[in-house]
Amino acid sequence: MVADQSSSRRGKSVSLDTRYLKSAKICYPLHPHYGETVSVLRELRYRGQAHLLCQIGDRVQLIPSWTCDALHCGKLTEGLVPRCDLGALLMVRQLIQGLDRTV
After folding, report:
1. Average pLDDT score over residue span 32-46
2. What are phi and psi of 89, to 5 degrees?
3. C-alpha to C-alpha distances, 99 to 49, 51, 87, 95, nearest whole angstrom
4. Quick check: helix, strand or coil at residue 25?
5. For a designed S-S bond to 24, which of 50, 57, 68, 85 qualifies (C-beta 3.0 to 4.6 A apart)?
6. 43 touches 51 (CB < 8 A)
7. Do β-strands 37-46 and 12-17 pair in parallel, antiparallel, or remain unpaired?
8. Mean of pLDDT values over 36-64
């Protein structure tokens, strides 16, 4: 049974199939909706990767499916060692300050 509901995504209508409607919790800690449970409208592949078409608030968004995989996200770390050398950051700062002077 297909519901008469629809959501708008940039002017395009997405019909909601109530036979498929599921929910998922976003487990990726750096996602802006981390910890929220969202409605999953469809599972699909985008650019060769599994994605979920989700209703998040009043918007429909496509998110990578691994962001809702607690086991996968639980293995992620922010790292104990900085990825960028302090000297390199200082050089970037000097470049940016130099750009300000030339404008």
Report:
1. 93
2. -65, -40
3. 39, 40, 19, 6
4. strand
5. 68
6. yes
7. unpaired
8. 92
